[in-house]
């Protein structure tokens, strides 16, 4: 039997926070921490080391967007799933730009939320219907801007780094990539870290965005 997905729940409303944590626990997840605001989330996450951080964006003095960046700077392999009352396009794009792997509105059912948590933990992006097209469309729009193409300085990646990056963009884990390319988990992680350093990025979500913008994400 597979291990339960570990989750941290971040929301400034105690009843909502506790209710979501209870629902996830009853459905087989393991809630390793909760936090009432962005600052607490960034402080607590490194010790809890959740696979998935489920969080709101409206968290008081410090925004959820800042919390996403702060958490992923410390835990680059953790995935962030935003659960927000807002479906505004600007909020969605800000969250994804900060590194979120998914975005659901709070009208989602408990079953939809559970499915999203498992998919996010498995490396797949998840968005409320209608938002996935928005995100991909925005990436493609940015990549197509003439000035962006002409002025961009693209760091040189090795053939193997590019191959690993393409598989990361498909949502594959280091173990899956290693099996696909007949490499050790340590070697795959080394390629990922080298690529992050070369591109001056901080986490896998940013790598996925880069791969889409550069046209690396396609293919088998």
From TrEMBL:
UniProt xrefs under InterPro entries? CheY-like_superfamily, NreC/VraR/RcsB-like_REC, Sig_transdc_resp-reg_C-effctor, Sig_transdc_resp-reg_receiver, Tscrpt_reg_LuxR_C, WalR-like
Q: Where is the HTH luxR-type domain?
A: 150-215
Q: Which domain of life is it from?
A: Bacteria
List, alphabetically, the SUPFAM superfamilies matched.
C-terminal effector domain of the bipartite response regulators, CheY-like
Listed Pfam families: GerE, Response_reg
Residue positions, PTM 4-aspartylphosphate: 56
Does the record carry Phosphoprotein as a key word? yes
| Keyword Transmembrane attached | no
Tell me the keywords, alphabetical order. Answer: DNA-binding, Phosphoprotein
**Domain Response regulatory residue range list:** 6-121
Q: What is this protein called?
A: Response regulator transcription factor
Origin species: Pseudonocardia acidicola
- Source taxonomy: Bacteria, Bacillati, Actinomycetota, Actinomycetes, Pseudonocardiales
